[in-house]
Amino acid sequence: MMEWAWDGYAKYAWGDNEVKPVSKLPHRSSVFGGGKFGTLATVCLSVRVVSLLTVNPLYDQHIILLEMLLDFIMQMPAVHQCGATIVDSLDTLYIMGLQSRFEKATEWVQTSLDLSRAGSTLSVFETTIRYIGGLLSAYALSNNQMFVEKAVAIADLLLPAFNTPTGIPYGYLDVIRKTGKSASWATGGSSILSEFGTLHMEFEYLSYVTKNPIYYEKVINSISLIAPTKLHTQYHSLVLVPLIPSPLYLFLHVCW
After folding, report:
1. Residues 201, 118 share a domain
2. Domain total for the chain?
3. What are 89-129's pLDDT values in tens digits?
4. Among the four residues 11, 38, 90, 224, which has the most C-beta atoms within 10 Å?
């Protein structure tokens, strides 16, 4: 199954983030970088929904034209390929003994992986678990120092996301402007617990292998803000952190 899935991706979408199994076209999701046409895809979906709800043939004509345009665009070479599937699959290829495929993926990472040219907004969480995690897993298995160097480059790219009043990183980072933002539905500068609360494994291991404490220091600050305080421990108080804690909650939590 892995060989079949990998070979299909390599044949139809090599270097792009993912492959669409039905259309056999590359999927360039913007949260992984390299995607500039997510809005057009959203428009296509919206028009299709309206068409189904209203049974209006006018919308059917529009959706056909929009989808033709989207398919044409998606067959064009990417502005910059970010290869999410390649990086995310490195450890699996190695563990399964698919050596020739692993070597091909390694060569692509060495020569082509550069998220500073992604040209879009990156999800800090997705970039951490898929790119930094994928690269460090490959390093732990193969001992190839190149993977660490690539992981450092990506981690350094994400560091501006931690420049917030609380130190908890923004959910998204514009790699061109080096500015961050929260998810559109997380109001008031709130952060998503399952995202910022799970970055420490990759960042801490990166500090371990590079002997550079900056990555560990960035993520341990986030964890310390949601950890039980001395007062909680003294009174055996149970700490239930909200799924999307706000800066005000974090301030009150630390003060208490």
Report:
1. yes
2. 2
3. 999 999 999 999 999 999 999 999 999 888 778 899 999 99
4. 90
